[in-house]
Amino acid sequence: MVDSIAILDFGSQYAQLIARRIREAQVYCELFPWDSSVDQVMGINPRGFILSGGPASVYTRNAPNIPGYVLESGLPVLGICYGLQALTHALGGRVAPAVEREYGPADLVTTISNPLLEAGSHRVWMSHGDRVEQPPAGFQVLARSDNSPAAFIGDLERGYFGVQFHPEVRHTPRGEVFLQRFFLEVCGARPDWTPESILQQSIHRVRQQVGNGRVLAGVSGGVDSSVAAALVHQAVGDQLVPVFVDNGLLREGESRQVLSAFQQNLGMELVVVDAREEFLTRLAGVMEPEEKRKVIGETFIRVFENRATKLGQPDFLVQGTIYPDVVESRAADRSKVERIKTHHNVGGLPPDLQFELVEPLRYLFKDEVRQVGEALGLPRELVWRQPFPGPGLAVRCLGEVTRDRLARLRAADEILIAELRQAGLLVLEQKGDELRGTAQAFAVLLPVRSVGVMGDQRTYQEVIALRAVTTEDFMTADWARLPHDLLARVANRIVNEVQGVNRVVYDITSKPPATIEWE
Ligand code: XMP
After folding, report:
1. What's the rounded Cα separation, in Å, for the pair 91 and 476?
2. pLDDT at 349
3. How much distance in Å is there from the Cα of 393 to the middle of ligand 1?
4. Which of 383, 409, 427 is the last residue in one of the domains?
5. Same domain for 345 and 421?
6. Is 29 one of the catalytic residues?
7. Residue nearest ligand 1's atom 21 by CA
8. What is the pLDDT of residue 342?
């Protein structure tokens, strides 16, 4: 078993970031809702605890508190923001509302030498209303800021620490080192969560679950479903039947690339189901985005069930669910957040499903999925490619999805992608404070026509919108500042080479208020 850290989540918007910082340092950790059972949390055999921030105040009724087993375990604890306040409250210190809420950058000055923060002044990110007025017995103030006299406190004997600021966000430059010192040095967790060990552990889990059963996997060509299928194949070999459903909504050359990636790199033959006609027929006349998603999701399952019966009913079905899907659907269940778009890889399967699910990526973040994909031998182009939505080109072909319109969209998209690749802008790079390149870039076909003039002839044709964004997490995004000459070249080529398009526009809205996809 690898070493691990347990994060108790008190409802922080940054909880996933804490987990990512730990995993990035190759230490395994899991996020648990603060009121999870002791067996669940202690089941990962943690070396220490991190208590996240959260919106509550410790002195209100029914405020979440630190479960008894945390302090009884004798393990080190780091409380962040609400976690600090809850720790202070639990150990007999005093927390009160601050005179002013503190939100944004602050300067922290170290007051006592300690294992987490060196002497000096440090820029940190604050976001809180309450603050610690009096640390519990045994604690010292290790650093203070103007507005928080006890911004960082600790009991060095017991390995208990609490910070008012957020070390997990990028706006706290020394935050990463600070956290690492806690879980590596204070907790003594070994950094043994490497791609190789992740792979071994995942294979072991799949073998245990599946035994001699037969497994079916749907491969869409996306990163998650490809890595999941490759991993299960590595674990149970020919017990797996990997099925590639060609829904006709993929980009130019994509289905060919996927098949050859599996065949050449892994020696895996995918069973191809050509369902292009079926998808197009069911999508005929469907204009509304959520309706398109629903039709595609249902058609996918129908095609799949149909095929599964022909293959002799399998016992298991592979799903490429990844850790953020798990954490976010848990959070969504709790707060019933408004549904903006249905992402059908989460919870979209019918309740009368005849298979048991195998989810080999359930505990992995996206970058870990990619590392595992590489360790399995999948090609870099497939493993590192930009995300592509499950409903494919259907949600980029605004209005009706027809064969002709898909062909137009595909041709325009291919030109954009080729030019971006040529310019080295199909990847995202941090250059100083700026993100260069694109995290996601594509063409969208609009359901409007505009007037143009080509070779003295009036034209009345459709419009292509280009969308390219920079983002780290796809929750917020900015439009990519692509070079003007590149945009000019792309527009020129699309109008000249793609039949039926006479105008190209560039989308300059960020998310929010827009979303990345147009539907
Ligand atoms: P939005 O458009 O909501 O998209 O800003 C955020 C990210 O999610 C992708 N996306 C989807 N992925 N099924 C998927 O698997 C979907 O229905 C879907 N809709 C959007 C989108 O491409 C972007 O990366």
Report:
1. 38
2. 55
3. 12
4. 383
5. no
6. no
7. 389
8. 58
228: domain CATH number? Answer: 3.40.50.620
Whether 217 and 170 share a structural domain? no
Ligand 1 binding pocket mutation candidate from 298, 478, 516 (most atoms within 8 A of CB) = 516
Helix and strand tally (H, E) in the chain? 15, 20
pLDDT-derived band at 327, boundaries 50, 70, 90: confident
Do 338 and 484 lie in one domain? The reply is: no
Share of the chain above pLDDT 90, in %: 82
Contact 321, 345 (CB under 8 A): yes
Q: At 343, is the pLDDT very low, low, confident or very high (cuts 50, 70, 90)? A: low
Catalytic residue among 81, 102, 122, 187: 81
User: How many CB atoms are closer than 10 A to CB 426?
Assistant: 22
- pLDDT of residue 432 exceeding 70: yes
Instruction: Work out the angle at residue 252's Cα, subtended by the Cα atoms of residues 247 and 255, and round it to the nearest 5 degrees.
Output: 50
* Nearest ligand 1 atom to alpha carbon 222: 15
**CATH code, 440:** 3.30.300.10
Task: Say which residues have a Cβ less than 8 Å from residue 98's Cβ, sequence separation at least 6.
Answer: 128, 129, 130, 131, 147, 148
Give the chain's length: 519
518 lies in a domain? Answer: no
335 and 430 share a domain?
A: no
- Residue 477 — very low, low, confident or very high, per pLDDT cuts 50/70/90? very high
Mean pLDDT estimate for the chain: 93
The amino acid at 436: R
pLDDT band at 13 (very low <50, low <70, confident <90, very high): confident
d(CA 191, CA 198): 12
Give yes or no: 168 in active site.
yes
- For the chain, the domain total comes to 3
Instruction: Output the pLDDT for position 344.
Output: 43
Distances (CA, A) of 375 to 193, 197, 199, 230, 378: 14, 10, 8, 11, 8
Placement of tokens 């592509």 in the chain: 388
Residue 360 has pLDDT above 60, yes or no: yes
344 is catalytic: no
* pLDDT score for 208: 97
Q: Is 436 in the pocket of ligand 1 (CB under 6 A)?
A: no
Segment 38-58 mean pLDDT:
96
Long-range contacts of 400-405 (CB under 8 A, 24+ apart): 400/283, 400/284, 400/285, 400/286, 400/287, 400/447, 401/249, 401/280, 401/283, 401/286, 401/292, 402/280, 402/284, 403/280, 404/500, 405/445, 405/462
Give the distance from CA 36 to its chain's centroid. Answer: 23
The CA distance from 355 to 231, in Å, is 19
What is the average per-residue pLDDT within 352-369? 88
> How far is residue 236 from each of residues 54, 205, 211, 214, 265, measured CA to CA in Å?
42, 11, 8, 9, 18
- 247 part of a folded domain: yes
Q: How many angstroms separate the CA atoms of 516 and 508, rounded?
A: 11
Domain hosting 25: range is 4-186
- Answer yes or no: is pLDDT of 238 > 90: yes
